[in-house]
Amino acid sequence: MIETTGLRKEFRGRKGGPRVAVQNLDLAVPAGGVHGFLGPNGSGKTTTIRMLLGLARPTNGTMRLFGQPVPEHLPEVIGRVGAVVESPKFSPSFSGRLNLELLSDAIGAPRSRVDAAIETVNLTGREDDRYKGYSLGMKQRLAIAATLLKDPDLLILDEPTNGLDPAGIREIRETIRALGDSGVTVLLSSHILAEVQQVCTSATIIGNGRLLASGEVQDLLGSSNAHRVVTPDPARAAEVLTRAGLSPSLDAGVLRVETDDASSVTRTLAEAGIWLSELTPLRPDLETFFLQLTDADKLGA
Questions:
Q1: What would you report as the CA-atom Rg of the chain, rounded to the nearest whole angstrom?
Q2: Worst-scoring range by mean pLDDT, 11-15, 187-191, 257-261?
Q3: For residue 235, what are the contacts with CB-CB under 8 A and spacing of at least 6?
Q4: Distance of alpha carbon 46 from its chain centroid, rounded?
Q5: Most buried of 52, 217, 245, 281, CB within 10 angstroms?
Q6: What is the mean pLDDT of the chain?
Q7: Cα dist. 185→60, 177, 213, 229, 268 in Å?
Q8: Mean pLDDT over residues 39-47, rounded?
């Protein structure tokens, strides 16, 4: 759906020299599902999106949407793309529905899509309220609804949960998940990793405008057989598990054991008269992986 090769963007710095925002970026977004586009603030995510949409011109490199080179063929494919890049502009005194109806008329989309878009973003029952009375989360959902009027194959969302409270983040997360499940390809730019992990099937991580990692989320994270072990006496539990050949580690009172057979931990400790309070698998998470990558990138920059 999206492909860039050697993409580079330079800006003129304050002292006249070039400032590189995107460095030889190779980006590949597969069709279907939600693809996370992740990186620290200032890493080049928004600049890349603006180049894809024809809002900024690359210094070097090539870009393709749906296999078509852009910006040369952008007019031919832009009708298949919906995007929320900056704060949307709606009339505050009009209802959500009226805003969408006026927009559908302006872009030549049938008004029948308005109700479908409202339902998709879960604004049913609030569509006739004035826009100025919407919460920030509702405003973001209305912005997504506006992009759906074109019935896009590709939806690009740049930091859609910025500034939202936990309830608003959950609403946007559920909307994005539903869109991905419906067959729309979603490129989700974000730095809220815990939220991204819940909705993304694949991801690209960049830092300082460079590609750091890309692939299926589960492949990026890998697997882990580590377990957190909580007992009343972790030091004695560590001794018992060590004698059993399980090689535990004890750090600040927290016992960690790597084993493919969690029952062996329970059995070994019980036989020694030590009772477990907790035995929890430690799952690899996207936030930890992201921080490891970006911290290493800072050291190497």
A1: 24
A2: 11-15
A3: 250
A4: 13
A5: 52
A6: 89
A7: 26, 11, 20, 40, 49
A8: 89
**Closest to 61 (Cα-Cα) out of 7, 20, 3:** 7
Tell me the domain boundaries of the chain: 2-220, 226-281
Structure tokens given for 269: 């400790």
Collapsing DSSP to helix, strand or coil, 228 comes out as strand
User: What is the predicted pLDDT for the residue at 1?
Assistant: 94
Q: What is the mean pLDDT of residues 280-298?
A: 76
Retrieve residue 135's tokens: 């919460």
pLDDT number for residue 28? 94
Q: What are the structure tokens assigned to 212, written together?
A: 């750091």
Residues 6+ apart with CB under 8 A from 145: 96, 100, 117, 118, 120, 121, 123
Q: What is the pTM of this model?
A: 0.80
Mapped to the 3 state alphabet, what secondary structure does 101-135 carry?
HHHHHHHCCCCHHHHHHHHHCCCCCCCCCEHHHCC
Task: Judge whether 256 and 299 are in contact, CB under 8 Å.
Answer: no
CB 254 within 8 A of CB 280: no
| Tokens 């030549």 belong to residue | 108
Question: What does the pLDDT look like over 79-118, one tens digit per residue?
Answer: 999 999 877 789 999 999 999 999 999 999 999 999 999 9
What is the CATH superfamily name and number for domain 2-220? P-loop containing nucleotide triphosphate hydrolases (3.40.50.300)
Give the Cα-Cα-Cα angle 46, 80, 168 (nearest 5 degrees): 55
